[in-house]
């Protein structure tokens, strides 16, 4: 019997184009919300009340908020504070928040359109209260910590964070999640977990849980330059389970430190050491008995002593030129534009309260 081979048809059914999903709309304003931009707006009034209560805002306080959204949290802050500063990348969000404030008869709102990582913080504020966009949580917290080291501390910060991120931020030395950010927070502030927030409290609902924390600056503030400290922590946490002896044998690290050392010697009129630079670095570790220490298991006191020991020998981790961070903010403040969209010249009360 002759069997005919099975021949597949070359003609295939056309693929149906996927139906585009309609954007999630905010129920009160009708504004479309984007998950890809991290627009998960808090709408649970009970959670908002607990956040405001934890902030303990006084009538004389200036409050800084990152990401106003449609103004749910902002409208709770306005009747309590002397001034509320807020910034959001979305023009439509800022306009909606301004409109709600005007309808409520509030004149103490200063709202800007722009990138919160590029728009300078207010020169003075007492409390930071924010449902932070998760993608910028770490850099915003670093900016808050830097403000403490610059001598213009705030009193408290109540922040909504991704739960996994909050777990790492609150981890202890030696734990798996202990990181550079957790160490910096421990040096400059006291961090407390307040409560968790379920996904259903947001529109649209994110796929993760959230956590609200409270930060309070340490008093007195530690006598350490934030840029110098953070540069040290960045170096030793790049391979946090390696010994410090191994960390400081890395060629790129030695090259960076030697360049800073030569610049410091030139500016201070100090004669460079006669011994090779790698041996100079190793001698500091040996004198402090830290050759075998590992970054993830070191406490604040040990790291502070190590930084002072390096600085005494003229070895610096950040650029020896001062004011780099301030110059960056000043350049942007006088440019009149940047971030997402554009916004007016920053000569308002946002910069000069």
TrEMBL record:
CDD domains: AdoMet_MTases
Gene3D superfamilies according to UniProt: 1.10.8.480, Vaccinia Virus protein VP39 (3.40.50.150)
Domain Ribosomal RNA adenine methylase transferase N-terminal, chain residue ranges per copy: 47-219
Top class in the EC scheme: transferase
Binding residue positions for S-adenosyl-L-methionine: 40, 42, 67, 88, 115, 131
Pfam families the record matches: RrnaAD
Keywords, comma-separated and alphabetical: Methyltransferase, RNA-binding, rRNA processing, S-adenosyl-L-methionine, Transferase
Family matches, as PROSITE patterns: SAM_RNA_A_N6_MT
InterPro entries referenced in this protein's UniProt entry, alphabetically: KsgA/Erm, rRNA_Ade_methylase_Trfase_N, rRNA_adenine_dimethylase, SAM-dependent_MTases_sf
EC number, as in UniProt: 2.1.1.-
Family as reported in the entry's similarity comment: Belongs to the class I-like SAM-binding methyltransferase superfamily. rRNA adenine N(6)-methyltransferase family.
Protein name, per record: rRNA adenine N(6)-methyltransferase
Organism this protein belongs to: Durusdinium trenchii
């Amino acid at each position: 019997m002759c069997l005919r081979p099975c021949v597949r048809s070359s003609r295939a059914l056309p693929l149906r184009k996927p139906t585009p999903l309609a954007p999630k709309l905010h129920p009160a304003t009708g504004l479309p919300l984007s998950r890809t931009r991290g627009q998960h707006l808090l709408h649970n009034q009970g959670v908002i009340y607990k956040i405001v209560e934890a902030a303990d805002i006084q009538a004389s306080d200036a409050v800084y908020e990152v990401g106003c959204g449609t103004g749910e949290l902002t409208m709770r802050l306005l009747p309590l504070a002397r001034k509320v500063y807020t910034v959001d990348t979305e023009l439509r969000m800022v306009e909606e928040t301004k409109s709600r404030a005007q309808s409520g008869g509030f004149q103490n709102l200063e709202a800007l359109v722009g990138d919160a990582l590029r728009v300078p913080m207010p020169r003075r504020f007492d409390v930071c209260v924010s449902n932070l966009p998760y993608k910028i949580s770490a850099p915003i917290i670093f900016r808050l910590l830097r403000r403490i080291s610059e001598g213009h501390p705030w009193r408290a910060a109540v922040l909504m964070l991704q739960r996994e991120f909050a777990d790492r931020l609150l981890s202890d030395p030696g734990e798996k999640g202990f990181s550079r950010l957790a160490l910096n927070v421990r040096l400059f502030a006291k961090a407390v977990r307040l409560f968790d927030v379920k996904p259903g409290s947001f529109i649209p609902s994110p796929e993760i849980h959230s956590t609200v924390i409270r930060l309070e600056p340490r008093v007195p503030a530690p006598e350490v330059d934030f840029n110098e400290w953070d540069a040290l922590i960045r170096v030793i946490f790049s391979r946090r389970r390696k010994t410090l002896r191994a960390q400081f044998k890395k060629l790129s690290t030695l090259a960076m430190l030697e360049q800073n050392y030569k610049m410091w010697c030139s500016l201070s009129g100090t004669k460079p050491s006669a011994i090779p630079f790698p041996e100079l670095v190793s001698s500091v570790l040996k004198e402090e008995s830290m050759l075998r220490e590992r970054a993830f298991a070191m406490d604040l006191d040990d790291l502070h002593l190590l930084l002072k020991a390096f600085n005494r020998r003229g070895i610096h981790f950040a650029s020896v030129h001062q004011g780099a961070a301030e110059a960056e903010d000043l350049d942007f403040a006088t440019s009149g534009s940047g971030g997402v969209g554009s916004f007016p010249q920053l000569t308002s009360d946002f910069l000069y309260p």
